[in-house]
Amino acid sequence: MPYIAVAIGGFIGAILRYGVSEWLGTWNGLNIATLLTNFAGCLALGWLNTISANRLPLHPNVRLGIGTGVIGAFTTFSTFTIDAWKLFENGAFEQALTYIWLSVIGGLLFTYVGYRIASAMTGDTRLKI
C-alpha cells in the first residue's frame, strides 16, 4: 500500500510541477518555475511534517503519499542542478551562483516558515519532524 500512495501522490505532484513550469517558465535566464516550485515544496513539507507530528496525526501511507509522492514529485533537485549547470555552461556565472544561493538559502527559509506556521497552528513552538 505505501507504494500505491507514493505512486498516486507522485502522479499528482508531477502534473502540478509540469503545469507550473508551463505557466511560469524562465525569467532573465533563470528558471523561475523551478525556484518557486522548490520554495513552495519546502514550505509545504515543513508545514506537513510539523502539523502531522503535532496536531493532525496522519496514517503513514497518507503522509507518504503527500510528502514523498506529491511534494517529492512537485519539487525537483535534478532540474535545479541542470538549470544551474546550463547557466555555468553559457558563461552566466553570476546568474548561476545567484540561482544556487537563492535556491539553497530560500529553501531553508521556506522550510523554516512552514515549520513556524504549523507550530503557530498547534501552539507548540518546538520544531519537530
Descriptive account of the structure:
With 129 residues, this protein is mainly alpha-helical. The protein has one domain. The chain is built from 5 helices and no strands. The chain has helices spanning 2-24, 32-54, 60-74, 77-89, 93-122. Helix 2 (32-54) packs parallel to helix 5. The longest helix is centred in the last third of the chain and has 30 residues, at 93-122. The chain is globular. The model has no long low-confidence stretch (mean pLDDT 88). It comes from Alicyclobacillus dauci. Its main location: membrane. It holds the Pfam family CRCB.
Keywords:
mainly alpha, 5 helices, 129 residues
Topology:
Blueprint: H1 2-24, H2 32-54, H3 60-74, H4 77-89, H5 93-122
Mean pLDDT: 88
Got a strand count? 0
Give the end-to-end Cα distance, rounded to a whole number of Å: 23 Å
Largest sheet: none
Describe the global form. globular
Please estimate the helix content: over 70%
Number of domains: 1
Number of helices: 5
Provide the structure class. Answer: mainly alpha
- Rg for CA atoms: 16 Å
Order of helices and strands: HHHHH
What are the segments in which pLDDT stays under 50 over at least 5 consecutive residues?
none
Main location: membrane
Function: Fluoride-specific ion channel. Important for reducing fluoride concentration in the cell, thus reducing its toxicity.
Subcellular location: Cell membrane
Keywords: Cell membrane, Ion channel, Ion transport, Membrane, Metal-binding, Sodium, Transmembrane, Transmembrane helix, Transport
Short description:
It is a multi-pass membrane protein. It is built from 5 helices and no strands.
